[in-house]
Amino acid sequence: MIKFCIEPFDVLFFGGGKPFNIGSVVQSIEFPFPHTFAGAISSIFQDLPGINENKILKNVYGPFLIKGETLYFPFPASIVKSKNNNTFHCLSILDENKQILVKSNYTNKIYEPKINESCLFYKGPDEVENFNGFLSLKGLEKWLENEDIDSSYVAHYSEIFEKEGRIGIKIDNQTNTVKDDDALYRIVFSRLKNGWKFVFFVEFDFDNKNNSNIKRRFEDENELVEYLRKVGVIKLGGEMRTASFNVELENFKDYFEQKIELKKDNIYRILFLTYFTLDENSSFDYLSCENNNNFDIIAVASRGLCNLAINSKALQLTNFTKRTKRALKPGSVFYVKPKQDCIIDVVTFFNKPKNFIGSNLGIIAKEGGN
Fold this sequence. Notes:
Blueprint: E1 2-8, E2 25-27, H1 34-42, E3 57-67, E4 70-74, E5 79-82, E6 88-90, E7 92-93, E8 120-121, E9 128-130, E10 133-136, H2 137-144, E11 154-156, H3 157-160, E12 161-169, E13 171-172, E14 177-178, E15 184-192, E16 196-204, H4 221-231, E17 233-236, E18 241-249, E19 259-262, E20 268-272, E21 276-277, E22 286-288, E23 294-301, E24 305-309, E25 324-328, E26 333-338, E27 342-345, E28 347-349, E29 361-364
Parallel strand pairs: 2-15
Antiparallel strand pairs: 1-16, 1-18, 3-4, 3-16, 4-10, 5-6, 5-9, 7-8, 10-11, 12-15, 13-14, 17-18, 19-27, 20-26, 20-29, 21-25, 22-23, 23-26, 24-25, 28-29
């Protein structure tokens, strides 16, 4: 596996699948999609003969963030922040044996969740709110071990990104002149602040399961790393902005324990480090992962839905509806029960989507936490 540390030279724009109209304001999404970075890296190989650049990537992990030597990941949606101070609190899952949310003296109606569903709540004296930010590797390790975290392990979104608005003009490609009288539009870009970089881990198809034929050009990952160091730059985002990168051999999964043993009917938490795609009905009933291990979903904490967008000639996509998919934002936390005793990877893909490489990457925590 190869680790890419990517540093943009300028502002970046990452589209979110919404239609764009001249005269409107369009804003970059909060955090880029995995397949955006995967496409940028694949394009490095498009001019190499004999290699199928569309199938060269086996798996990707990220994007995440790095400052200095510290990795940062999407902040778990199951943790809320006190409005009065910098303390953080975990949401609790409602006791299955007491699943009554409202009981009023003025009505005989109460909400009793189904057996296979529950909800999350905070019980305490503080007024709380969602926290839009990122959690350091050490903070994530504490979350996985069901330990409390504090402000020393977190970075707010505003500490990492800043917005920058610019005016654009729609140009007619044939005449190289302004296309219409009202062809102005405004774009709000994102810019990484000083010291911050994207980090992205790539597993290349050296076993040729995707028929990429990468070994026609590179004998192994070491030779590939030497080639990538000579390249050093990629085009990233909707505006194809230039970014530099450094590479080294490093396996993302080595940051965590390799395996975890799960017991049937115990409740576990899964933190999704990338976007989690939904089916056509924007619903989800269960999770599945390696070796057909399945999980019932008990509760979900998330900061909302968005559109995943992809535009790839390699996929021969012609219908716009087939290029978008509803997804939960990174940092979503699923509370699940395994349907059978099993041993799985701590870091793995759940309900792995076909075309959206890198989405649905989850990390599973030990039982007993919130």
